[in-house]
């Protein structure tokens, strides 16, 4: 029996803290004005995407007391933006990244339940953790959780939030004939949670929302993160968008589901992916090379080299050769708290490899960072990109992709106009929404007591 054709899931990622946006392009717009968010969301909905994904950074990225030169230096509150977008969209899912380390279950559950009501069932929560003191300095605890405790807190945080969401399950509305006031059963919303991280009790004051619970995303790549996703998430936000690494990640995470009594289709694998389009493959490649150069300034190149060298390299010429000195061993003191530092587990070996690459190719520091950094995942004509995305999904490298354009807010427009119709012609992407909730779009079950709406728009 032949394998059934998979339907592709597509989402749009509005960049948060990043080195993706090409600010030098005259079409680059604001990352804080609501018109940018609205344009981006409406384009995604016009293309029938599953959802918009809103990243968040809890502290501006900096090294040596200087903010990264090509970074976004402002981001409005996630819930405020998503609530506003709920008013200018009808079907598009609304996903927000909210940290479980520096928040509390009651307030986050209340905010997501409210968003699910406001959007009529389109809310999703990307659960992330933070282990570094650099971010923690912004919060009253003035510190951070030890690395081994961050997933313990996240698991209990999510469990507690689910208890709050479910505290209204099955309750009926009754009307007082004399006063006309609507009442609920006296037990509605009552909760008690006693655990290692949270000891709370009371009454949850937001009734059962359309989805029952928001769709839950998880973005960790460690073994603990993969296990957390397999046990508790509806989708995992992955960085493995290439075919080989994507298939390995897909197989690993899906294989973990059975131990939690879950089916493979109950967890979607959705990598972040960048793209560049051209009228021909050759033109797209040329555009992609220029985009990469614009994403890495001289200052950015030095900052990223410091992630490996653990030294202040501000005195080096980014258009000159790599440092002759070796990386400093031990605790990272230059780019403290940056997640990217953990990618280089053996800095001395990385430095040796990079020096060999630079010598063989005649690369400067900036050239090296451009060539060893993230490359666009999908580059080519609209037909090439459509065929490649479809091939990756059918090969189980992903269930779909969360697209990150290099221009905001109009960077998604060309994909919507030129690639989506080709995927629709191939019969692997919807021509219209078949339901109204995000769980409908993603093919996920609705929790008991929630109401899924399956009327086409």
UniProtKB/TrEMBL annotation:
> Which UniProt keywords are present, listed alphabetically?
Flavoprotein, FMN, Monooxygenase, Oxidoreductase
Looking at the UniProt entry, the stretches that span the membrane are: none
Q: GO molecular function: any one?
A: monooxygenase activity
> Ribonucleoprotein among the record's keywords?
no
Looking at the keywords, is Glycoprotein present? no
Binding positions for FMN?
Answer: 97, 151, 222
Task: Give the Luciferase-like domain ranges.
Answer: 24-395
| NCBIfam families tied to this protein | FMN_nitrolo (TIGR03860)
Per its record, how is this protein called by name?
Nitrilotriacetate monooxygenase component A
Give the originating organism. Answer: Streptomyces griseoviridis
């Amino acid at each position: 029996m032949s394998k059934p054709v998979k339907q592709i899931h597509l989402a749009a990622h509005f960049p948060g803290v990043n080195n993706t946006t090409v600010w030098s392009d005259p079409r680059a717009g604001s990352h804080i004005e609501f018109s940018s968010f609205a344009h981006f969301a409406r384009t995604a909905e016009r293309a029938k995407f599953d959802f918009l994904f809103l990243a968040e950074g809890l502290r501006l990225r900096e090294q040596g007391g200087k903010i990264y030169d090509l970074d976004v230096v402002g981001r409005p509150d996630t819930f405020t933006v998503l609530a506003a977008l709920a008013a200018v969209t009808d079907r598009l899912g609304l996903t927000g990244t909210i940290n479980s380390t520096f928040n509390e279950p009651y307030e986050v559950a209340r905010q997501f339940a409210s968003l699910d009501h406001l959007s009529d069932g389109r809310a999703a929560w990307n659960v992330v953790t933070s282990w570094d003191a650099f971010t923690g300095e912004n919060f009253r605890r003035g510190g951070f959780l030890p690395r081994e405790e961050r997933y313990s807190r996240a698991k209990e945080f999510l469990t507690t939030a689910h208890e709050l969401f479910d505290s209204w399950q099955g309750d009926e509305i009754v009307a007082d004939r004399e006063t006309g006031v609507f009442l609920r059963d006296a037990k509605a919303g009552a909760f008690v949670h006693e655990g290692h991280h949270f000891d709370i009790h009371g009454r949850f004051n937001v009734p059962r929302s359309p989805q029952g619970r928001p769709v839950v995303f998880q973005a960790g790549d460690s073994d603990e993160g993969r296990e957390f996703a397999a046990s508790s998430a509806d989708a995992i936000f992955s960085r493995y968008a290439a075919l080989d690494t994507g298939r390995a990640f897909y197989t690993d995470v899906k294989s973990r589901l059975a131990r939690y009594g879950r089916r493979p289709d109950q967890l979607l694998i959705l990598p972040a992916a960048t793209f560049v389009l051209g009228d021909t493959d050759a033109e797209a490649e040329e555009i992609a090379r220029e985009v990469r150069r614009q994403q890495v300034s001289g200052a950015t190149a030095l900052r990223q080299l410091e992630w490996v060298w653990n030294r202040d390299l501000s005195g080096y010429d980014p258009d000159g050769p790599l440092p002759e000195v070796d990386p400093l061993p031990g605790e990272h003191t230059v780019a403290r708290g940056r997640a990217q530092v953990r990618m280089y587990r053996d800095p001395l070996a990385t430095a040796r490899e990079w020096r060999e690459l630079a010598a063989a190719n005649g690369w400067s520091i900036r050239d090296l960072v451009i060539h060893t950094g993230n490359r666009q995942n999908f580059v080519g004509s609209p037909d090439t990109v459509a065929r490649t995305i479809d091939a990756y999904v059918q090969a189980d490298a992903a269930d779909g992709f969360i697209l990150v354009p290099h221009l905001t807010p109009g960077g998604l427009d060309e994909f919507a106009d030129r690639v989506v119709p080709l995927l629709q012609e191939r019969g692997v992407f919807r021509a219209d929404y078949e339901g109204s909730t995000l769980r409908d779009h993603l093919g996920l079950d609705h929790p008991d007591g929630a109401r899924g709406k399956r009327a086409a728009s």
